[in-house]
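Notes, Module 5: Reading structure tokens.

Key idea: the token line is not a picture. It is a compressed description, and you learn to read it the same way you learned to read a sequence, by spotting repeated patterns. We will look at two proteins. The first is printed below with its tokens.
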Amino acid sequence: MKKVIKLFFYDASYLILENDKIIYVGNRKGNVYKIIIDACMRIKSYIFASINVSFLWHRKLGHISMDILSKLVKNELVKGLPHLAFKKEKLCDACY
């Protein structure tokens, strides 16, 4: 049986369901829906999609090209930017 994960957001809370069974209930504080990672780690499901880290940095830095990201890493021009291989594998949806 294929696992189907659904999220439902409400004004003050949200639900995570796996195959229509509630597996997590979270709360909203201000404009942020909070999640307790420890609680999620105990759940035997993969709730979070894995996203290529280089594409996360691409998005964080305003959809900058992978070539420029590579130069930033090589010349250590951005504090906290991990030393990753930024390769043009595909275009993200926003840059397509």
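Here is the second protein, with the sequence above and the tokens below, as before.
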Amino acid sequence: MSQGHEFGMFLRKAYLTFHRHANALMLNHGVTADQFVLLSVVASEPGITQITIVERTASDPNTVAAVLRLLEQRGLIRREAHAHDGRARCVHLTAEGRRVQRRAAKDSESILAALLACVGDSDRNEIERFLQRVHQVFSMPNAGANAHLPGATSKHEKTK
């Protein structure tokens, strides 16, 4: 396996391992880790639009809509028409949604502390910048396998 593949595999393993632990923790509160993320975004920005939730979470719009629909059916959020944009929907936590989000957030402190304990403060800043850059680069239009990404060199360029 090449260095690039190995590096990508380490990122994947780290994310999936953390996500499994977060899911197990959140299930104690009756939500998945992904549902908790959306509840937390709405808790921090009451009245946020669905499209802004998509942007904040870097999630697929259809997935966000489906999760919000489920959370609404469970009585954890409510959606209202936007005051100025008839197409937009604003999302708010219900009292039960706020209660679930707060309890789950309190419980998440241990897993976040364990995550932060994996790196020192200076490493953390560097890792955060790296992860932001990865997100930025791969969020660009046409950032697929055939795109020329900044800093990337193709096999053809290496042999020149």
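Summary for the second protein:
- The two ends are 24 Å apart (CA to CA).
- Strands lie at 48-49, 77-81, 89-93.
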